[in-house]
TrEMBL record:
Keywords: Membrane, Transmembrane, Transmembrane helix. It comes from the Eukaryota. The chain crosses the membrane at residues 98-117, 171-189, 227-252, 264-293, 341-360, 372-391, 448-475. This is Uncharacterized protein LOC110980762. Residues 11-32 are annotated as: Disordered. Coiled coil: none annotated. The gene is LOC110980762. It comes from Acanthaster planci.
Length: 476
Protein backbone atom coordinates (compact mmCIF):
# COMPACT_ATOMS: atom_id res chain seq x y z
CA UNK A 1 0.00 0.00 0.00
CA UNK A 2 1.11 3.55 -0.46
CA UNK A 3 0.14 7.01 0.46
CA UNK A 4 -1.89 7.76 -2.65
CA UNK A 5 -4.76 5.47 -1.62
CA UNK A 6 -5.46 2.42 0.48
CA UNK A 7 -6.27 -0.69 -1.49
CA UNK A 8 -6.55 1.26 -4.74
CA UNK A 9 -4.67 0.06 -7.78
CA UNK A 10 -2.52 2.73 -9.40
CA UNK A 11 -2.98 3.24 -13.11
CA UNK A 12 -2.45 5.92 -15.69
CA UNK A 13 -5.98 7.27 -15.28
CA UNK A 14 -5.07 8.73 -11.92
CA UNK A 15 -2.67 11.10 -13.60
CA UNK A 16 -4.59 11.45 -16.91
CA UNK A 17 -8.26 12.18 -16.36
CA UNK A 18 -9.15 11.69 -20.04
CA UNK A 19 -7.33 8.38 -20.36
CA UNK A 20 -10.31 6.19 -19.49
CA UNK A 21 -12.52 7.65 -22.19
CA UNK A 22 -9.70 7.28 -24.73
CA UNK A 23 -9.16 3.63 -23.86
CA UNK A 24 -12.88 2.90 -23.96
CA UNK A 25 -13.18 4.38 -27.44
CA UNK A 26 -10.18 2.32 -28.61
CA UNK A 27 -11.71 -0.83 -27.16
CA UNK A 28 -15.00 -0.16 -28.95
CA UNK A 29 -13.17 0.37 -32.22
CA UNK A 30 -11.17 -2.85 -31.79
CA UNK A 31 -14.32 -4.73 -30.86
CA UNK A 32 -16.08 -3.51 -34.01
CA UNK A 33 -13.17 -4.50 -36.23
CA UNK A 34 -12.92 -7.90 -34.53
CA UNK A 35 -16.62 -8.58 -34.89
CA UNK A 36 -16.51 -7.64 -38.56
CA UNK A 37 -13.72 -10.15 -39.20
CA UNK A 38 -15.50 -13.08 -37.56
CA UNK A 39 -16.39 -15.84 -40.05
CA UNK A 40 -19.39 -17.85 -38.96
CA UNK A 41 -18.95 -21.54 -39.79
CA UNK A 42 -22.20 -23.45 -39.71
CA UNK A 43 -23.61 -26.50 -41.42
CA UNK A 44 -25.66 -25.81 -44.51
CA UNK A 45 -28.41 -28.18 -43.47
CA UNK A 46 -28.66 -26.77 -39.93
CA UNK A 47 -28.79 -23.23 -41.24
CA UNK A 48 -31.42 -23.99 -43.86
CA UNK A 49 -33.10 -27.36 -43.58
CA UNK A 50 -35.01 -26.88 -46.82
CA UNK A 51 -31.83 -26.54 -48.91
CA UNK A 52 -31.31 -30.29 -49.30
CA UNK A 53 -29.72 -29.99 -52.71
CA UNK A 54 -26.95 -27.61 -51.88
CA UNK A 55 -23.82 -28.39 -53.89
CA UNK A 56 -21.76 -29.40 -50.86
CA UNK A 57 -24.53 -31.62 -49.54
CA UNK A 58 -25.14 -33.32 -52.88
CA UNK A 59 -21.42 -33.86 -53.44
CA UNK A 60 -21.25 -35.59 -50.08
CA UNK A 61 -24.27 -37.72 -50.98
CA UNK A 62 -22.70 -38.57 -54.35
CA UNK A 63 -19.47 -39.53 -52.63
CA UNK A 64 -21.33 -41.81 -50.24
CA UNK A 65 -23.71 -43.42 -52.74
CA UNK A 66 -21.68 -43.56 -55.95
CA UNK A 67 -17.96 -43.07 -55.45
CA UNK A 68 -17.44 -45.14 -52.31
CA UNK A 69 -19.16 -48.28 -53.70
CA UNK A 70 -17.11 -47.86 -56.86
CA UNK A 71 -13.92 -47.50 -54.79
CA UNK A 72 -14.81 -50.73 -52.98
CA UNK A 73 -15.05 -52.44 -56.36
CA UNK A 74 -11.58 -51.10 -57.22
CA UNK A 75 -10.30 -52.42 -53.86
CA UNK A 76 -11.58 -55.91 -54.70
CA UNK A 77 -9.88 -56.08 -58.11
CA UNK A 78 -6.64 -54.54 -56.81
CA UNK A 79 -6.79 -51.25 -58.70
CA UNK A 80 -6.97 -49.11 -55.56
CA UNK A 81 -4.55 -49.64 -52.64
CA UNK A 82 -5.92 -50.49 -49.22
CA UNK A 83 -5.64 -47.93 -46.44
CA UNK A 84 -4.81 -44.99 -48.68
CA UNK A 85 -7.39 -42.76 -46.97
CA UNK A 86 -6.28 -43.65 -43.46
CA UNK A 87 -4.07 -41.42 -41.35
CA UNK A 88 -2.01 -44.31 -39.95
CA UNK A 89 -0.69 -46.02 -43.08
CA UNK A 90 1.46 -48.65 -41.37
CA UNK A 91 3.58 -51.49 -42.74
CA UNK A 92 0.67 -53.92 -42.66
CA UNK A 93 -1.16 -51.96 -45.37
CA UNK A 94 2.02 -51.79 -47.44
CA UNK A 95 2.52 -55.55 -47.22
CA UNK A 96 -1.13 -56.18 -48.11
CA UNK A 97 -0.89 -53.85 -51.11
CA UNK A 98 2.04 -55.90 -52.41
CA UNK A 99 0.75 -59.41 -51.70
CA UNK A 100 -2.88 -58.92 -52.77
CA UNK A 101 -2.20 -57.89 -56.42
CA UNK A 102 0.19 -60.83 -56.79
CA UNK A 103 -2.49 -63.20 -55.52
CA UNK A 104 -4.98 -61.69 -57.96
CA UNK A 105 -2.62 -62.21 -60.90
CA UNK A 106 -2.05 -65.83 -59.84
CA UNK A 107 -5.80 -66.31 -59.49
CA UNK A 108 -6.40 -64.88 -62.97
CA UNK A 109 -3.92 -67.31 -64.54
CA UNK A 110 -5.56 -70.15 -62.62
CA UNK A 111 -8.98 -69.16 -64.01
CA UNK A 112 -7.61 -68.90 -67.55
CA UNK A 113 -6.04 -72.37 -67.30
CA UNK A 114 -9.09 -73.95 -65.67
CA UNK A 115 -11.40 -72.54 -68.34
CA UNK A 116 -9.35 -74.20 -71.07
CA UNK A 117 -8.78 -77.54 -69.32
CA UNK A 118 -12.39 -78.00 -68.21
CA UNK A 119 -13.85 -76.47 -71.39
CA UNK A 120 -15.88 -74.16 -69.16
CA UNK A 121 -19.09 -73.00 -70.79
CA UNK A 122 -18.66 -75.47 -73.66
CA UNK A 123 -18.18 -72.63 -76.13
CA UNK A 124 -17.10 -74.92 -78.96
CA UNK A 125 -19.72 -75.67 -81.59
CA UNK A 126 -20.68 -79.36 -81.25
CA UNK A 127 -19.81 -81.51 -84.22
CA UNK A 128 -22.05 -84.52 -84.86
CA UNK A 129 -20.12 -87.51 -86.16
CA UNK A 130 -22.51 -89.53 -88.36
CA UNK A 131 -22.55 -93.28 -88.20
CA UNK A 132 -21.05 -95.12 -91.16
CA UNK A 133 -22.59 -98.27 -92.62
CA UNK A 134 -20.37 -100.78 -94.42
CA UNK A 135 -21.90 -102.84 -97.20
CA UNK A 136 -22.42 -106.54 -96.48
CA UNK A 137 -19.51 -108.88 -97.14
CA UNK A 138 -19.54 -112.61 -97.74
CA UNK A 139 -17.74 -114.58 -95.03
CA UNK A 140 -17.18 -118.34 -95.61
CA UNK A 141 -17.74 -120.77 -92.68
CA UNK A 142 -15.02 -123.38 -92.39
CA UNK A 143 -14.48 -125.54 -95.43
CA UNK A 144 -18.07 -125.54 -96.58
CA UNK A 145 -19.37 -123.58 -99.48
CA UNK A 146 -22.10 -121.95 -97.36
CA UNK A 147 -21.63 -118.22 -97.05
CA UNK A 148 -23.34 -115.82 -94.64
CA UNK A 149 -23.68 -112.11 -95.32
CA UNK A 150 -22.53 -109.94 -92.43
CA UNK A 151 -22.74 -106.17 -91.97
CA UNK A 152 -21.12 -103.82 -89.45
CA UNK A 153 -22.13 -100.36 -88.25
CA UNK A 154 -19.37 -98.06 -87.02
CA UNK A 155 -20.68 -95.77 -84.30
CA UNK A 156 -18.83 -92.83 -82.77
CA UNK A 157 -16.72 -93.86 -79.85
CA UNK A 158 -18.09 -93.18 -76.40
CA UNK A 159 -16.77 -89.86 -75.20
CA UNK A 160 -14.84 -90.26 -71.97
CA UNK A 161 -13.38 -86.75 -71.89
CA UNK A 162 -14.58 -83.75 -73.86
CA UNK A 163 -11.69 -82.13 -75.70
CA UNK A 164 -12.29 -78.46 -76.42
CA UNK A 165 -12.15 -77.17 -79.95
CA UNK A 166 -11.75 -73.57 -81.10
CA UNK A 167 -9.43 -72.89 -78.16
CA UNK A 168 -7.78 -69.84 -79.71
CA UNK A 169 -10.97 -68.02 -80.69
CA UNK A 170 -13.12 -69.01 -77.70
CA UNK A 171 -10.69 -69.09 -74.77
CA UNK A 172 -7.10 -68.01 -75.38
CA UNK A 173 -7.69 -64.80 -77.34
CA UNK A 174 -10.49 -63.43 -75.08
CA UNK A 175 -8.43 -64.23 -71.98
CA UNK A 176 -5.38 -62.44 -73.38
CA UNK A 177 -7.50 -59.34 -74.06
CA UNK A 178 -8.97 -59.55 -70.56
CA UNK A 179 -5.53 -59.73 -68.93
CA UNK A 180 -4.24 -56.81 -71.02
CA UNK A 181 -7.24 -54.74 -69.88
CA UNK A 182 -6.48 -55.73 -66.26
CA UNK A 183 -2.84 -54.65 -66.58
CA UNK A 184 -3.79 -51.38 -68.27
CA UNK A 185 -6.34 -50.62 -65.54
CA UNK A 186 -3.78 -51.45 -62.83
CA UNK A 187 -1.32 -49.02 -64.38
CA UNK A 188 -3.96 -46.34 -64.93
CA UNK A 189 -5.62 -46.44 -61.49
CA UNK A 190 -2.95 -47.90 -59.21
CA UNK A 191 0.40 -46.70 -60.58
CA UNK A 192 -0.69 -43.31 -61.91
CA UNK A 193 -3.24 -42.83 -59.10
CA UNK A 194 -5.69 -41.35 -61.58
CA UNK A 195 -8.75 -39.66 -60.04
CA UNK A 196 -10.16 -38.31 -63.29
CA UNK A 197 -13.71 -39.50 -62.63
CA UNK A 198 -13.88 -37.75 -59.23
CA UNK A 199 -12.74 -34.42 -60.66
CA UNK A 200 -15.13 -34.68 -63.60
CA UNK A 201 -18.08 -35.40 -61.33
CA UNK A 202 -17.29 -32.38 -59.18
CA UNK A 203 -17.03 -30.09 -62.21
CA UNK A 204 -20.29 -31.40 -63.64
CA UNK A 205 -22.04 -30.92 -60.30
CA UNK A 206 -20.98 -27.29 -60.18
CA UNK A 207 -22.74 -26.68 -63.50
CA UNK A 208 -25.96 -28.63 -62.94
CA UNK A 209 -28.90 -26.96 -61.24
CA UNK A 210 -29.20 -27.72 -57.49
CA UNK A 211 -32.97 -28.16 -57.56
CA UNK A 212 -35.03 -31.28 -57.14
CA UNK A 213 -37.18 -31.14 -60.28
CA UNK A 214 -35.88 -30.76 -63.82
CA UNK A 215 -34.21 -32.56 -66.69
CA UNK A 216 -30.59 -31.84 -65.77
CA UNK A 217 -30.30 -31.57 -62.00
CA UNK A 218 -27.84 -32.83 -59.44
CA UNK A 219 -30.33 -35.40 -58.16
CA UNK A 220 -30.88 -36.67 -61.71
CA UNK A 221 -27.15 -37.02 -62.18
CA UNK A 222 -26.78 -38.98 -58.93
CA UNK A 223 -29.68 -41.23 -59.91
CA UNK A 224 -28.17 -41.97 -63.33
CA UNK A 225 -24.77 -42.86 -61.88
CA UNK A 226 -26.34 -45.03 -59.19
CA UNK A 227 -28.29 -46.95 -61.83
CA UNK A 228 -25.11 -47.51 -63.85
CA UNK A 229 -23.39 -48.89 -60.76
CA UNK A 230 -26.38 -51.09 -59.91
CA UNK A 231 -26.56 -52.40 -63.49
CA UNK A 232 -22.87 -53.33 -63.32
CA UNK A 233 -23.45 -55.25 -60.09
CA UNK A 234 -26.51 -56.98 -61.57
CA UNK A 235 -24.49 -58.02 -64.61
CA UNK A 236 -21.86 -59.64 -62.38
CA UNK A 237 -24.60 -61.47 -60.45
CA UNK A 238 -26.15 -62.54 -63.75
CA UNK A 239 -22.86 -63.97 -65.01
CA UNK A 240 -22.43 -65.95 -61.80
CA UNK A 241 -25.97 -67.22 -62.29
CA UNK A 242 -25.07 -68.28 -65.84
CA UNK A 243 -22.09 -70.20 -64.43
CA UNK A 244 -24.41 -71.94 -61.96
CA UNK A 245 -26.79 -72.77 -64.83
CA UNK A 246 -23.90 -74.27 -66.79
CA UNK A 247 -22.81 -76.46 -63.89
CA UNK A 248 -26.39 -77.61 -63.33
CA UNK A 249 -27.23 -78.21 -66.99
CA UNK A 250 -24.16 -80.28 -67.88
CA UNK A 251 -23.47 -81.83 -64.47
CA UNK A 252 -20.37 -81.71 -62.33
CA UNK A 253 -18.95 -84.89 -63.85
CA UNK A 254 -18.52 -83.30 -67.29
CA UNK A 255 -17.53 -79.83 -66.07
CA UNK A 256 -14.89 -80.53 -63.40
CA UNK A 257 -11.38 -81.23 -64.62
CA UNK A 258 -10.03 -84.34 -62.84
CA UNK A 259 -6.89 -82.94 -61.25
CA UNK A 260 -7.09 -85.48 -58.40
CA UNK A 261 -8.55 -88.93 -58.04
CA UNK A 262 -10.49 -87.78 -54.98
CA UNK A 263 -13.60 -85.90 -56.12
CA UNK A 264 -13.68 -83.70 -53.01
CA UNK A 265 -10.40 -82.02 -53.94
CA UNK A 266 -11.68 -81.39 -57.45
CA UNK A 267 -14.76 -79.68 -56.00
CA UNK A 268 -12.50 -77.47 -53.86
CA UNK A 269 -10.60 -76.42 -56.98
CA UNK A 270 -13.94 -75.73 -58.66
CA UNK A 271 -14.81 -73.42 -55.75
CA UNK A 272 -11.54 -71.54 -56.25
CA UNK A 273 -12.41 -71.21 -59.93
CA UNK A 274 -15.87 -69.83 -59.08
CA UNK A 275 -14.30 -67.17 -56.86
CA UNK A 276 -11.85 -66.36 -59.65
CA UNK A 277 -14.75 -66.00 -62.08
CA UNK A 278 -16.27 -63.46 -59.68
CA UNK A 279 -13.07 -61.40 -59.85
CA UNK A 280 -12.92 -61.97 -63.63
CA UNK A 281 -16.40 -60.53 -64.14
CA UNK A 282 -15.81 -57.74 -61.59
CA UNK A 283 -12.87 -56.48 -63.65
CA UNK A 284 -15.13 -56.28 -66.70
CA UNK A 285 -17.83 -54.47 -64.71
CA UNK A 286 -15.29 -51.98 -63.30
CA UNK A 287 -14.07 -50.98 -66.75
CA UNK A 288 -17.58 -50.65 -68.19
CA UNK A 289 -18.90 -48.71 -65.17
CA UNK A 290 -15.97 -46.29 -65.21
CA UNK A 291 -16.31 -45.63 -68.93
CA UNK A 292 -20.09 -45.19 -68.91
CA UNK A 293 -20.08 -43.00 -65.78
CA UNK A 294 -17.52 -40.70 -67.38
CA UNK A 295 -19.67 -40.51 -70.52
CA UNK A 296 -22.75 -39.71 -68.41
CA UNK A 297 -20.86 -37.01 -66.49
CA UNK A 298 -19.73 -35.29 -69.69
CA UNK A 299 -23.27 -35.54 -71.08
CA UNK A 300 -24.66 -33.76 -68.00
CA UNK A 301 -21.93 -31.12 -68.32
CA UNK A 302 -22.83 -30.52 -71.97
CA UNK A 303 -26.54 -30.36 -71.20
CA UNK A 304 -25.93 -27.55 -68.70
CA UNK A 305 -23.98 -25.65 -71.37
CA UNK A 306 -26.79 -26.23 -73.87
CA UNK A 307 -29.37 -24.90 -71.39
CA UNK A 308 -27.31 -21.75 -70.86
CA UNK A 309 -27.15 -21.17 -74.61
CA UNK A 310 -30.86 -21.75 -75.16
CA UNK A 311 -31.94 -19.65 -72.18
CA UNK A 312 -29.28 -16.98 -72.90
CA UNK A 313 -28.16 -16.85 -69.28
CA UNK A 314 -24.41 -17.31 -69.60
CA UNK A 315 -21.47 -15.26 -70.76
CA UNK A 316 -19.96 -16.43 -74.04
CA UNK A 317 -16.41 -16.29 -72.71
CA UNK A 318 -17.27 -18.46 -69.70
CA UNK A 319 -19.20 -20.86 -71.93
CA UNK A 320 -16.15 -21.19 -74.16
CA UNK A 321 -14.08 -22.05 -71.07
CA UNK A 322 -16.61 -24.74 -70.15
CA UNK A 323 -16.58 -26.18 -73.69
CA UNK A 324 -12.79 -26.31 -73.52
CA UNK A 325 -13.03 -28.29 -70.25
CA UNK A 326 -15.44 -30.70 -71.91
CA UNK A 327 -13.10 -31.07 -74.88
CA UNK A 328 -10.22 -31.90 -72.51
CA UNK A 329 -12.37 -34.39 -70.61
CA UNK A 330 -13.40 -36.13 -73.84
CA UNK A 331 -9.77 -36.20 -74.96
CA UNK A 332 -8.85 -37.94 -71.70
CA UNK A 333 -11.76 -40.33 -72.14
CA UNK A 334 -10.36 -41.35 -75.54
CA UNK A 335 -7.02 -42.17 -73.89
CA UNK A 336 -6.24 -45.21 -71.70
CA UNK A 337 -9.88 -45.56 -70.65
CA UNK A 338 -11.01 -46.01 -74.26
CA UNK A 339 -8.14 -48.46 -74.86
CA UNK A 340 -9.28 -50.62 -71.94
CA UNK A 341 -12.86 -50.45 -73.14
CA UNK A 342 -11.84 -51.32 -76.72
CA UNK A 343 -9.98 -54.43 -75.58
CA UNK A 344 -13.02 -55.66 -73.68
CA UNK A 345 -15.45 -54.67 -76.45
CA UNK A 346 -13.56 -56.97 -78.81
CA UNK A 347 -13.84 -59.64 -76.13
CA UNK A 348 -17.58 -59.01 -75.81
CA UNK A 349 -18.04 -59.28 -79.58
CA UNK A 350 -16.23 -62.64 -79.60
CA UNK A 351 -18.51 -63.94 -76.84
CA UNK A 352 -21.61 -62.74 -78.71
CA UNK A 353 -20.45 -64.65 -81.80
CA UNK A 354 -19.96 -67.72 -79.60
CA UNK A 355 -23.46 -67.30 -78.20
CA UNK A 356 -24.99 -67.00 -81.67
CA UNK A 357 -23.11 -70.11 -82.80
CA UNK A 358 -24.30 -72.11 -79.81
CA UNK A 359 -27.90 -71.14 -80.51
CA UNK A 360 -27.79 -71.84 -84.25
CA UNK A 361 -25.57 -74.95 -84.31
CA UNK A 362 -26.94 -77.16 -81.55
CA UNK A 363 -26.35 -80.81 -80.96
CA UNK A 364 -29.88 -82.16 -80.63
CA UNK A 365 -28.71 -85.09 -78.48
CA UNK A 366 -27.77 -82.83 -75.54
CA UNK A 367 -30.48 -80.17 -75.84
CA UNK A 368 -32.87 -79.82 -72.91
CA UNK A 369 -34.72 -76.81 -71.47
CA UNK A 370 -31.95 -76.14 -68.92
CA UNK A 371 -29.19 -76.14 -71.55
CA UNK A 372 -31.25 -73.90 -73.82
CA UNK A 373 -31.90 -71.48 -70.93
CA UNK A 374 -28.19 -71.36 -70.17
CA UNK A 375 -27.26 -70.54 -73.76
CA UNK A 376 -29.96 -67.88 -74.16
CA UNK A 377 -28.93 -66.15 -70.92
CA UNK A 378 -25.27 -66.38 -71.94
CA UNK A 379 -25.98 -64.69 -75.27
CA UNK A 380 -28.21 -61.95 -73.81
CA UNK A 381 -25.80 -60.94 -71.03
CA UNK A 382 -22.84 -60.58 -73.39
CA UNK A 383 -25.00 -58.73 -75.92
CA UNK A 384 -26.16 -56.22 -73.28
CA UNK A 385 -22.66 -55.41 -72.08
CA UNK A 386 -21.48 -55.11 -75.69
CA UNK A 387 -24.19 -52.62 -76.66
CA UNK A 388 -24.13 -50.48 -73.50
CA UNK A 389 -20.73 -48.74 -74.03
CA UNK A 390 -21.61 -48.02 -77.66
CA UNK A 391 -24.93 -46.47 -76.62
CA UNK A 392 -23.22 -44.19 -74.09
CA UNK A 393 -20.53 -43.17 -76.59
CA UNK A 394 -23.20 -42.44 -79.22
CA UNK A 395 -25.17 -40.30 -76.75
CA UNK A 396 -22.05 -38.28 -75.96
CA UNK A 397 -21.30 -37.73 -79.64
CA UNK A 398 -24.87 -36.60 -80.31
CA UNK A 399 -24.75 -33.95 -77.57
CA UNK A 400 -21.85 -32.30 -79.43
CA UNK A 401 -24.14 -31.96 -82.45
CA UNK A 402 -26.78 -30.26 -80.29
CA UNK A 403 -24.23 -27.70 -79.04
CA UNK A 404 -23.25 -26.95 -82.63
CA UNK A 405 -26.92 -26.57 -83.58
CA UNK A 406 -27.44 -24.13 -80.68
CA UNK A 407 -24.44 -22.10 -81.88
CA UNK A 408 -25.97 -21.90 -85.37
CA UNK A 409 -29.26 -20.65 -83.94
CA UNK A 410 -27.39 -18.03 -81.92
CA UNK A 411 -25.71 -16.78 -85.08
CA UNK A 412 -29.11 -16.32 -86.73
CA UNK A 413 -31.14 -14.89 -83.85
CA UNK A 414 -28.37 -13.23 -81.84
CA UNK A 415 -27.24 -13.64 -78.25
CA UNK A 416 -27.73 -10.84 -75.71
CA UNK A 417 -25.36 -7.97 -76.56
CA UNK A 418 -22.85 -10.05 -78.53
CA UNK A 419 -21.75 -8.68 -81.88
CA UNK A 420 -21.91 -10.73 -85.10
CA UNK A 421 -18.11 -11.03 -84.98
CA UNK A 422 -18.33 -12.55 -81.49
CA UNK A 423 -20.98 -15.00 -82.67
CA UNK A 424 -18.88 -15.99 -85.70
CA UNK A 425 -15.92 -16.57 -83.44
CA UNK A 426 -18.02 -18.66 -81.06
CA UNK A 427 -19.46 -20.75 -83.91
CA UNK A 428 -15.99 -21.43 -85.28
CA UNK A 429 -14.75 -22.35 -81.80
CA UNK A 430 -17.61 -24.81 -81.27
CA UNK A 431 -17.01 -26.39 -84.67
CA UNK A 432 -13.30 -26.85 -83.99
CA UNK A 433 -13.92 -28.13 -80.45
CA UNK A 434 -16.28 -30.84 -81.70
CA UNK A 435 -14.73 -34.12 -80.57
CA UNK A 436 -15.70 -37.66 -81.52
CA UNK A 437 -15.80 -40.41 -78.95
CA UNK A 438 -13.85 -43.43 -80.16
CA UNK A 439 -14.17 -47.14 -79.48
CA UNK A 440 -12.00 -49.66 -81.31
CA UNK A 441 -10.31 -46.53 -82.76
CA UNK A 442 -13.54 -45.76 -84.66
CA UNK A 443 -15.64 -42.59 -84.09
CA UNK A 444 -18.94 -43.65 -82.56
CA UNK A 445 -22.26 -41.93 -83.22
CA UNK A 446 -25.90 -42.98 -83.37
CA UNK A 447 -25.95 -43.54 -87.12
CA UNK A 448 -22.97 -45.90 -86.85
CA UNK A 449 -24.57 -47.94 -84.05
CA UNK A 450 -27.89 -48.23 -85.88
CA UNK A 451 -26.11 -49.08 -89.13
CA UNK A 452 -24.10 -51.89 -87.51
CA UNK A 453 -27.23 -53.38 -85.93
CA UNK A 454 -29.18 -53.29 -89.20
CA UNK A 455 -26.26 -54.67 -91.21
CA UNK A 456 -25.71 -57.52 -88.75
CA UNK A 457 -29.40 -58.44 -88.78
CA UNK A 458 -29.53 -58.35 -92.59
CA UNK A 459 -26.37 -60.49 -92.82
CA UNK A 460 -27.80 -63.13 -90.49
CA UNK A 461 -31.01 -63.27 -92.52
CA UNK A 462 -29.03 -63.74 -95.75
CA UNK A 463 -26.88 -66.51 -94.24
CA UNK A 464 -29.92 -68.37 -92.94
CA UNK A 465 -31.88 -68.02 -96.20
CA UNK A 466 -28.96 -69.23 -98.34
CA UNK A 467 -28.39 -72.25 -96.11
CA UNK A 468 -24.88 -71.27 -95.03
CA UNK A 469 -26.21 -71.19 -91.48
CA UNK A 470 -28.50 -74.14 -90.78
CA UNK A 471 -31.15 -72.97 -88.34
CA UNK A 472 -32.27 -75.37 -85.58
CA UNK A 473 -35.92 -74.85 -86.55
CA UNK A 474 -37.66 -75.33 -89.90
CA UNK A 475 -39.56 -72.09 -89.38
CA UNK A 476 -36.43 -69.93 -89.60
Amino acid sequence: MNGFGVGRQMDDTMFHPNGRSTLSSNDDRDRDSYSSSICEITDCESRDSSNLYHTTTVLRVCRQQVLKPYWKLLFVIGWRPFGRDRINYHCGWKALNVIYPLLLVALMFYVYAYRILSCQGKYDVPLIVPSTDISPTIVPHGGSNVTTPMSFTIEPAAETYHICTHLISSYVFPDVLHFLAFLLGFWYFRIQDNEQMDAMIQQAFLHTTPIQHGTNTQSTMIRAMKWILICGALWVVGMMGVLALFLTAFGLESTIYPFFSVQAWNIVLLGVNVFGCLIYNSIIAAVVVNYTVQCETIICFMRSIQEQLLEKTGDLRMIMHDILKVWQATHQLNGPMANMMSLLVFNFAAMVVVGVSLLLFQNQTEINPLVLTYRVCFFLLWLVILVFPFVQAARLSSIYNKIEQAALEMRVFGYLTSTPRDLDSFLQFVTLAKYKVRLLFIPVDKSLVYGILLLTTFLLIVLVQTGIIVAPSLYL
